[in-house]
Amino acid sequence: MGAKLDAADERRVVEAIRAAEAGNRGEVRVHIERRSAAPPLASARRWFFELGMHRTAADTGVLLYVGLQARAAAVFAGGALHAEVEPERWQAAIDAVVAGYRDGRPADGLCDGLDRVGGILRRALPGEDIHGNELPDAVSTS
Fold it and tell me: Which CATH number fits the domain that encloses residue 30?
């Protein structure tokens, strides 16, 4: 999996985060990690908590995690989504991200994955987000 996103690609991904949050009560972030010895889902869980995503009012956070060294991605979601979304439903988003990186188009993969996350959120948590935008619409890296 390739390196860091350039400024234009990062803007595209941030717009895709905003689109994924539209029409539902979810809060979405992307985290790209260069190196981790842990499995992707364990890393996603760790970053979910380190980024404070568990502090949303209704525990509706979703982290789309990319592990560059492991050439893998994962999704970790807050408790409000565990009862609503089977873990396998996130796999299409994960596959889209991995394919984008594999094909040298990381921003396209992230945007496709975020579109899929947004679709899941609109089915699982439809409606207006009465708590507002609780988390930054941003790509974080480590």
Answer: 3.10.310.50
